[in-house]
Amino acid sequence: MTTPTLSSFHQKIFTHAKSAKRNRFSALSFLKFRIPHFAFPNKILPFPLNSLTPRRPTAAFTLIELLAVITIIGILAGLTLGAAGAVRRHGATSTAKAEVAALQAACDRYYADNNSYPTTTNSMPDPSSGYSPSASTYTNAGQVLFFNLVGSAKLSVAPTSKRYFEPKPAMVNTTPSTNILIDPWGYIYGYNSDGTNAPLIWSTAGQTTGGANTNKWITSWPKM
């Protein structure tokens, strides 16, 4: 098979195409060696890098946006803490009501066996004259109540008489020689009885200063 002979015109076109192809590969090879290998691995760029090309700006928070976020977080934290405090107060109030009712029932059981309530000679504290749930009037009456209902001077000691009330450890102040029953706020339960009439049992609901509102007290008697 013979190779056809090209005309001089076609030979010039063919030679020009081969030259252009060589030049193109030479330019690409030049770019390949000029561009750092670590910048574009395994890639040959069709154009040289331009150091003056503007970079795309990086997104960032402004000071006003940051302050707005901090303010929102502070508001949410305040609402959360306030709600948590309200839940704790409601829980403490519910616990105190249940404990006052349980103490009242225990005193009734004591009366059924002894025909008398645990007796104290202390008068009812007057909030208007100043009082404290840790004062001696509360301490003395609280010890009388504890000894008669629990049947011993200490919760850790076996009772020497019938036990009418089984307190939880969190309800007992074990520091005095005769333990004392305390409310969920850590203060002594108030107690007053002449032995004949139904006793008065109350919690000051965390109030510790004189002149406090007794309507906030949790009591065994109906509130007016």
What does this structure look like?
By secondary structure, the chain is mostly helical. It has a domain of about 110 residues. The protein is built from three helices and five strands, in the order H-H-H-E-E-E-E-E. A three-stranded antiparallel β-sheet has the order 3-4-5. It has a two-stranded antiparallel sheet with strand order 1-2. A hairpin with a 6-residue loop joins strand 1 and strand 2. The model has no long low-confidence stretch (mean pLDDT about 80).
Strand residue content: 5-15%
Main sheet record: 3 strands, antiparallel
Write down the Rg.
45 Å
- The largest sheet has its strands arranged as 3-4-5
Question: Total number of helical segments?
Answer: 3
N-to-C order of helices and strands:
HHHEEEEE
- The residue ranges in which pLDDT falls below 50 over 5 or more consecutive positions are none
- The percentage helix is 40-55%
Structural class: mainly alpha
Termini gap: 127 Å
Number of strands: 5
Mean pLDDT: 78
Summarize the structure.
With 224 residues, this protein is mainly alpha-helical.
Task: Fill in the keyword field for this structure.
single chain; 224 residues; mainly alpha; 3-stranded antiparallel beta sheet; two-stranded antiparallel sheet; 5 strands; 42% helix; 6% strand
Strands, helices and their partners?
Elements: H1 8-34, H2 63-114, H3 136-150, E1 172-173, E2 180-181, E3 190-192, E4 200-203, E5 218-219
Antiparallel strand pairs: 1-2, 3-4, 4-5
